[in-house]
Amino acid sequence: MNPLTQTKNLQKLIENEIKLGAVGTKKSWHNQYRDSAWVFFGGMPFELTEGDIICIFSQFGEVVNINLIRDRKTGKSKGFGFACYENQLSTDLAVDNFNGTKILGRVIRVDHAGNYKPPKEHEDADEITKFLRESGCQGEFHQLEEKKDKIELKQVKIEKDKDDYRTKFDGRDRERKKSRSRSRDRDKKRDKLRERSRNREKSKDVDRKRDKEGERDRRKSRSRERDRSRSRDRHRRDRDYHRSDRY
Predict the structure, then answer these.
(1) Mean pLDDT of 48-71
(2) Which CATH number is 3-139's, of 3.30.70.330, 3.30.260.10, 3.40.640.10, 3.40.50.300?
(3) Looking at the predicted structure, is the pLDDT value of residue 138 above 50?
(4) What is the pLDDT of residues 140-194, one digit of tens each?
(5) Distance between CA 16 and CA 212 in Å, rounded?
(6) Chain CA centroid to CA 135, Å
(7) How far apart (Å, rounded) are the C-alpha atoms in residues 186 and 180?
(8) 40, 116 in Cβ contact below 8 A?
(9) How far from 53 is each of 30, 94, 104, CA to CA, in Å?
(10) Half-sphere exposure of 117 toward its Cβ, with a 13 Å CA cutoff?
(11) Percent of the chain having pLDDT more than 90?
C-alpha cells in the first residue's frame, strides 16, 4: 500500500475514534500496542538528524532511544526509522498528533511499532548519536555542547597522535632509506675494488704468460744460434782438413 494512503487511512481511524469518544478508553485501537513504547516514523526530510527528530518527538514525552535508518555506504538518512518513548502513553499522543503533519514541506507518517526490536548498538555510531540515544532531548543544550567539545578534543588528540605517528614513521622510513643507500654505495665500492683486483690479477697473468712465451722464444733462438755455430765450426774444420791433405 502506498505510504500516503496508509497515512490517510490512519488519520481516518483517529478521527473516527474521536467521534466515538473512545480516546483513552479500553475500546481505543491504541490498546493493542500497550506493550510497546516504540513508534515508526517515515517521510522525514533527509537532512534531519537523530537529534532533530528527537527534539520533534519530545513534544509528547521523553525519547529514550532512536534508530534513524541510514544508507550503509553513504551514511545518508533514508527518511524513516523508529523512536522509543520512556512512557508508553506518549506513543498514543505522537501517533494522533504527528501522523499526516508536514515537516519542511514533507507529509510524515507516524504509527505504532508493536513488534519492533531495537538493534544492538552499532560500533560505528558517533558519540553525539550515542549521547542523544541515552539522554534524549530535554532542553539540556549546554550538556550537548559540553559533550560535543569533549568529542572534538578527543578527535583532535587522535588526529595529533596519528600525525605524530606518521612523523615518526616517516623519520624511520627516511633513516632506513638512507641506511640502504649507504649500504648500496658500500657494496658498489666493494664490487669496484674486487673488479680492479681481478683486472690486476688478469694483467699479471697476461704479463707472466708473455714473459714465459718470450723466454721460450729466447731459448729457441739461442738453441738455433748454437746449432748454426756448431754447423759453422764443423764446416770450418772439414775445410781445413781438406786443405791440409792437398799440401
Answers:
(1) 92
(2) 3.30.70.330
(3) no
(4) 444 555 655 666 666 666 666 666 666 666 666 677 777 777 778 787 888 888 8
(5) 128
(6) 33
(7) 10
(8) yes
(9) 22, 12, 12
(10) 1
(11) 21
Q: Show me where the domains of the chain are located.
A: 3-139, 141-247
Give the three-class secondary structure for 82. Answer: strand
- 59 touches 30 (CB < 8 A): no
Instruction: Give the whole-angstrom CA distance, residue 179 versus residue 40.
Output: 64
Residue 39: band (very low, low, confident or very high) from pLDDT cuts 50, 70, 90 = very high
Each residue's pLDDT tens digit, 230-244: 777 676 776 666 666
- H helices of the chain, where? 3-20, 50-57, 89-98, 127-135, 141-246
